[in-house]
Amino acid sequence: MLQATLKRLTAEHRVAALVGDLATDNDAKRLAESGAPVRQIVTGTVCHLEAEMVENALAGAAWNLSEIDFLFLENVGNLVCPSSYDLGEHARVVLLSTTEGEDKPLKYPTIFNTSDAAVVTKLDLAEAAGCDLTLLQSNIQDVRPGLPVWSVSARTGQGMEEWLQFIHGVKAKSMQGMPA
Length: 180
Known about the structure:
Distance between the termini: 32 Å
Radius of gyration: 16 Å
Helix content: 25-40%
Number of helices: 8
Strand content: 15-25%
CATH topology of the largest domain: Rossmann fold
Order of helices and strands: HEHEHEEHHEHHEH
Structural class: alpha/beta
CATH architecture of the largest domain: 3-Layer(aba) Sandwich
Number of domains: 2
CATH superfamily of the largest domain: P-loop containing nucleotide triphosphate hydrolases
Low-confidence stretches: none
């Protein structure tokens, strides 16, 4: 999902990503194939990114933050720990794969309650995974009524344009009131 997002945005924008994982730089290598600069944050035994980790990664980055239009922070891939830590993001988005099951919003409500939007990913696998998309959407709304939700397949491109419109909207809102 993030790789497809970066690839689509790099055509017209300066984008970069910071990627958090307990170990390895596998995600950073894969995401770098998008053409965007990517920097790995290895958290060791910590199950989430913290603001200081992000600050240190930015200080050592090969790019200047003021020259980046969109910076994506991919937190450690779980639905528990990242929900409690503010990283100064303009928008927090939770990704939930159709292969994870419809009950995840009910089991892990905090991440949905601290997010500005949700993206249901791997839409192309929903049928094969036996995912009831209506129930999944309902469970998200039960936990967080009114939360914007997009269903996306990075593989087929379904839903990507709507997702990118949201990202552009976040950028526009973040620019309001900033000096020219």
